[in-house]
Amino acid sequence: MFKLQIVKPANKAPSFKKRLNPNFIVELVKGADGKIENESIVKYESPKASDPEGDKITMKFQLERKDYLKAKQNRDNSFTLKVNRAGLPH
Is 3 exposed, middle or buried (0-12, 13-18, 19+ CB in 10 A)? Predict the structure, then answer.
């Protein structure tokens, strides 16, 4: 005798619609006095993510002790990463 168990297919993971840029380069230019010349904030916005099953997507970011980095999930399931050049270690 054997037991037959019907199992639902595994959950399909969400994915980004386009490839994420693996390199996000922030240029840090110092003047002759050693001070940073451009202290502006640089922003990267990811492509949108989608879930094939229509489930809610929740993104979590681990940026402990990185005061110069801010990340947030946007309403359209993309994320924005902001880098404050003035706070970069140099």
Answer: exposed
